[in-house]
């Protein structure tokens, strides 16, 4: 038996009996051309772009700035709570030491009402308030109404006692500001009652407008009340009971408390005005 051997050429195909396809044997030049035609894929996470890194850096920087601002506001709120406590304790010490009668009762009531309760009441919804930031919104609203009702009642009663004592003839800066704070307190409490019953008065005022008006009146009352207390340290009652340097300290602490307590209400009022403008 004679065996015939076929010549081997470059175009000859090798058959793989274990598969259903045939794989041609390519020359080096053909393999190189085929490799150039094959698409190359690059994983997304392995090919970062400058735009992606720029966006991440911006977000990170913005987040760090926001956290720094929150820490600062948290610290300022703690400082404000210390100022409020110092004013309340000092005035209570002076007035309770000599007995709550006449001017002492007036000074104690307006301090408890405006400098303590109203200051805490206007900051209840403030997000960085160390005393109420863990409460739910409904709980904050309930605390807000209770504290401001008590504060407004004490402050108005204290101012009314002095007005009756003076026969409503108050010629000093302290007295005139006190009458203004008394009127604004009554208006604020009335608007607060209307805001509580906003569904019933919505035919006259929209709920958002009514709440914005309530915030404005309440904040104006608080500002005038603390400015009134600032001038109250120059009255004869405090001059006869405290030294000059201590009165200066009380003025500074009162103004500092006014500024720090105004951060939350001003933010809330700004958002309501922005919503109304839309």
UniProtKB/TrEMBL annotation:
UniProt-annotated location(s)? Membrane
Question: What's its top-level EC category?
Answer: translocase
Q: Which GO terms describe its molecular function?
A: metal ion binding; transmembrane ascorbate ferrireductase activity; transmembrane monodehydroascorbate reductase activity
- Gene Ontology cellular-component terms listed: membrane
Give the Cytochrome b561 domain ranges: 75-269
Which membrane topology term applies here? Multi-pass membrane protein
Pfam families recorded: Cytochrom_B561
User: Record keywords: S-adenosyl-L-methionine included?
Assistant: no
Q: What is its EC number?
A: 7.2.1.3
Q: Does the keyword Signal apply?
A: no
Q: Which cofactor does it need?
A: heme b
Q: Which domain of life is it from?
A: Eukaryota
Bilayer-crossing residues are 74-93, 105-124, 145-165, 177-196, 208-228, 248-270
Q: Which UniProt keywords apply?
A: Electron transport, Heme, Iron, Membrane, Metal-binding, Transmembrane, Transmembrane helix, Transport
PANTHER family named among the record's database cross-references: ASCORBATE FERRIREDUCTASE (TRANSMEMBRANE), OS05G0565100 PROTEIN
Instruction: Specify the protein name.
Output: ascorbate ferrireductase (transmembrane)
The gene name on file is: LOC117565324
């Amino acid at each position: 038996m004679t065996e015939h051997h076929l010549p081997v050429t470059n175009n000859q195909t090798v058959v793989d009996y274990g598969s259903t396809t045939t794989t041609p044997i390519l020359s080096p030049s053909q393999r190189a051309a085929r490799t150039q035609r094959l698409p190359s894929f690059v994983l997304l996470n392995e090919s970062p772009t400058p735009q992606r890194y720029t966006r991440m850096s911006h977000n990170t920087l913005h987040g760090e700035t926001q956290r720094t601002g929150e820490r600062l506001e948290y610290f300022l709120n703690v400082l404000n709570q210390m100022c409020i406590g110092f004013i309340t304790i000092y005035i209570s010490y002076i007035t309770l030491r000599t007995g709550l009668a006449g001017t002492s009762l007036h000074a104690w009531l307006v301090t408890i009402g405006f400098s303590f309760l109203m200051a805490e009441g206007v900051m209840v919804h403030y997000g960085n308030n160390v005393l109420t930031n863990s409460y739910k919104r409904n709980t904050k609203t309930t605390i807000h109404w209770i504290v401001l009702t008590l504060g407004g009642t004490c402050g108005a009663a204290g101012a009314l006692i002095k007005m009756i004592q003076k026969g409503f003839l108050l010629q000093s800066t302290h007295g005139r500001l006190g009458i203004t704070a008394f009127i604004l307190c009554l208006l604020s409490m009335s608007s607060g009652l209307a805001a509580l019953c906003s569904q019933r008065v919505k035919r006259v005022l929209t709920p958002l407008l009514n709440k914005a008006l309530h915030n404005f009146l309440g904040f104006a009352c608080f500002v005038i009340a603390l400015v009134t207390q600032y001038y109250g340290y120059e009255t004869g009652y405090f001059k006869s009971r405290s030294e000059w340097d201590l009165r200066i300290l009380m003025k500074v602490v009162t103004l500092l408390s006014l500024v720090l307590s105004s951060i939350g209400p001003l933010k809330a009022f700004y958002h309501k005005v922005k919503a109304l403008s839309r």
